[in-house]
Specification:
The protein has 263 residues and is α/β, with parallel strands linked by helices. The protein has one domain: TIM Barrel, CATH 3.20.20.150. It has an 8-stranded parallel beta barrel, surrounded by 5 helices. Helix 3 runs parallel beside helix 4 and helix 8 crosses helix 9. The longest helix has 23 residues.
């Protein structure tokens, strides 16, 4: 398992400077935001070239919405995601993080024929088949992210995302697990990770408070043991708030996480 950090958590006048700091703090990788990646690709390529800190993942950054009733809005999301998959593949990222929809359903409820959620799942499966074909060629995974119930209604638990992956039947469409969202939605984080198994290809780290690990009550040790049991060897990226000084808190967090992994 490799530790990564979202770009926004580390200061620096350039990406190269941020990578140098992350290396000094003890990180293996970085997660970058996708919204301006097309404009930054040359800069990112240059900064990563030969650096010990690698690009683990690209976090969203696309327009539109995959599950909007307007085909043009859906197509915007699909096109943007495909572009980011291409860039992520060229940069060596494991995958692109994708949230299908935020908030309540946008599609109509046509009960008793189909509920809005039924329609969403059917549509998401078909879209992910298309995205999965593109992701395979780009060599960059589609990583479906379950969120907690206050941020989305659709994929809230790991088994929700796992069910979609199994229906899509594409090795290029997988999922990620976020410890903060799991602390709200999963009855047993470790058991849920074991059940999801090899479908989990990326992890976000935040404590129950959505601050750095160690600033809440999440049991990371058992979660990491579960990840070991499913032979997870990917990146675990910090996505959280920092209550203190970067140069103090980030190295301390790395030390804390390493102790939880080794335990």
């Amino acid at each position: 398992m490799k530790l990564a950090c979202q770009e926004g958590l580390v200061s620096g006048r350039s990406l190269s400077e941020k990578l140098d700091k992350l290396a000094a703090y003890g990180f293996d990788g970085i997660e970058i935001w996708g919204h301006d990646l097309a404009e930054r690709e040359k800069e990112v390529t240059k900064a990563l070239d030969g650096h010990d800190v690698k690009l683990g993942s690209v976090c969203a950054g696309y327009g539109g919405c995959l599950l909007d009733p307007d085909p043009a809005v859906r197509q915007e999301a699909i096109d943007d995601i495909k572009t980011l998959l291409d860039i992520g593949g060229r940069l060596g990222a494991v995958g692109l993080i994708v949230v299908p929809v935020f908030g309540p359903p946008r599609l109509p409820d046509v009960s008793p024929l189909r509920t809005a959620v039924d329609l969403e799942k059917d549509l998401l499966i078909e879209i992910c088949k298309d995205l999965g074909n593109h992701a395979r060629k780009a060599k960059c995974l589609v990583l479906l992210e379950p969120l907690n119930r206050y941020e989305t209604h659709l994929l809230c638990r790991l088994d929700d995302a796992a069910a979609i992956c199994k229906e899509v039947k594409k090795s290029s469409v997988r999922m990620m697990a976020d410890f903060f969202h799991m602390s709200i939605e999963e009855v047993d984080i470790a058991a849920s990770l074991k059940e999801a198994g090899s479908l989990v290809k990326h992890v976000h780290l935040a404590d129950s408070t959505r601050l750095l690990p160690g600033y809440g009550h999440t049991d990371f040790r058992s979660g990491f043991a579960a990840l070991k049991s499913i032979r997870f060897k990917g990146y675990m990226a910090l996505e959280c708030g920092n209550p203190g000084k970067e140069e103090v808190e980030l190295p301390k967090t790395v030390e804390y996480l390493r102790s939880q992994i080794s335990g």
